[in-house]
């Protein structure tokens, strides 16, 4: 019981001190304002017992400083204007009263806040940028200059050919729809300043306003939403990324006009273009947003260019391998012809020796000293008996072993359906046509999809 009496006494003393402070401030006000402030309670909203108070709003976008794809937000400076009618501030006359912004502490004002704001501040140089104007019918105009950073969910799958729709949402913090109602004073014309706004990478294509309700656990609250659509300017990215990467692809095709025997020149062009393209991709990604693991349109294009450049390098490897295989095939064919020639010569010698042997059995030996020698010379190469001397076996030549290995490898390649190229130089001739045509077709599909779908 004593605690309740103490709380009531403290509340009464606090209210008395606040009323005395208002009286002291009212003593320095003009007579008209003193009459208006007499009996005025700023803690009670207008029409407290007669329905909700309607608050009209309008915006003037002074600037949009930054739009961050990495942080998914934008920073803007706005002039927020609010109008409502307070029956307690009606006075006689035909002129409005412009008051100092610091007198806003004496009046009731809506508890409007920006929903998706990450950080905001009210400008206070040289004084707080506030405006209070009271009209004879009790209408109050309250204006603020605010810089706020607002979250904006972005879809970057078509970056840098994307369009982003951001919003600026205004709600009442404590008053629900039974106490306060929000509305745009002039519909879509309530927001101005975007037509003359100059942005670094974007152009404002469209903007519109809407009225809705915010539903929370504590009730339904009034809500105003301003939508604006931003389109990114692609010219910078064309000059910075698309043109250099396309030129690197064209540079890799120069190797198709260089002879297959110029191994250092073609390898140098292939490796240089691959490394340069890798550096370009890494440099482009450092300035691009990588949040949420978006596969962006520019990443797709860089990947296409890298694939074509790497394909040109692989093309030379295939052509050079086919050249080696083609030359080895000629050597292998020559070796088969030589082997057949040796077999034919051995057959001739065998026939001659058999013919001489038969002749020796039919005719008597005329010259015993010279006949055996001639007969020995004729029979020795193909003597079937083991008693006769045999010629010494020649050591196997390494060339025949290499040709055998190459023949085996060739059979293996045929078994895995490796196509045989009659002339390896035709590979470069085909590449001079297929690579540019394929690159043009892929570019047509790429730009058609990302620009029109």
TrEMBL record:
Which residues, if any, are the signal sequence?
Answer: 1-21
What is the superkingdom listed in this entry's lineage? Eukaryota
* Positions of the Neurotransmitter-gated ion-channel transmembrane domain: 241-447
Phosphoprotein found in the keyword field: no
In what ranges is there compositional bias, type Low complexity?
Answer: 365-388
Annotated region Disordered: the residues are 359-397
Give GO MF terms, alphabetically. Answer: GABA-A receptor activity; GABA-gated chloride ion channel activity
What are the UniProt keywords, alphabetically? Cell membrane, Chloride, Chloride channel, Disulfide bond, Glycoprotein, Ion channel, Ion transport, Membrane, Signal, Transmembrane, Transmembrane helix, Transport
Q: Which family does it belong to?
A: Belongs to the ligand-gated ion channel (TC 1.A.9) family. Gamma-aminobutyric acid receptor (TC 1.A.9.5) subfamily. GABRP sub-subfamily.
Protein name per UniProt? Gamma-aminobutyric acid receptor subunit pi
